[in-house]
Amino acid sequence: MRAEWAAAGVEGRFMPLEDTEYGLREFAFVDGDGTLHRIGSRLPKDGPAAPTAATRPGDATEREIAPGQREASERGFVIRTDGAARGNPGPASLGAVLIDASRPDALHPLAPPDASISEYLGRQTNNVAEYTGLVRALDLAAELGASEVDLLLDSKLIVEQLNGRWRAKDAKLIPLLIAAQQRLRALRRWSAAHVPRAQNSAADALANEAIDRALAGGPTRVVVRPGGAEPRAGAGDRTFDRFRLDREGDGG
């Protein structure tokens, strides 16, 4: 499990197993912000529900900002993400679109993205693909200087867990949830809302393109950044800024 958490980009340290008042054997994880997460190794048949992944009591989705503190350089994005898995688990991928929140069409489902990600993940479940897409999108938003994000997601599971209304029980999803929480806490403001799948067609198309492209021998990851942003690519990645992507098309 430690390897899964490291792969999700969760920073922190594990604490020893111990018995708790919930009748569980638990381990604890302290993340890089000092938040204690207690994860049960099994759920009790009776009695009060045990916490699985949680933020500090009183944490809110919006931080208090003193009047005049916000700078003109602060930037916001509307983010739509999706995951795909052909079989569950099966060949899986993610898609994400980021739209500058200052644009008048930012909330339109068909608004052309300012940045996007299309990435093949190998064999995964759909929920892992969905969560990984969220984490990747938040990383890209941070790279582009975001201080605010509005998440419009067709995964009710993710929206409810981010907002603290549903618990995370799946061991594969808990580290991804915490990774997303860590990134969201670094922002000045964030929101997460559930939208119909029909309003998420752009991210869905990018996810399915990633599977088709990778299975045909193409790059596993394509990241489109706004013109002027410095492209970054890892091993095996193929990353373009918007203008280079238009020029190279599907060949390359």
Mean pLDDT: 76
Intertermini distance: 38 Å
Estimate what percentage of residues fall within beta strands. 25-35%
Number of strands: 10
Strand order of the largest sheet: 8-7-4-5-6-9-10
Overall geometry: globular
What does the main sheet amount to?
7 strands, mixed
* CA-atom Rg in angstroms: 19 Å
Task: Describe this entry's structure for a reader.
The chain is an alpha/beta fold and 252 residues long. The protein has helices at residues 2-7, 126-143, 156-162, 174-185, 201-215, 242-248; strands spanning 12-19, 25-31, 36-40, 75-85, 90-100, 115-124, 146-153, 189-194, 221-225, 238-241. Strand 2 (25-31) and strand 3 (36-40) form a beta hairpin. The longest helix is centred in the middle third of the chain and has 18 residues, at 126-143. The protein is globular and about 40 Å long.
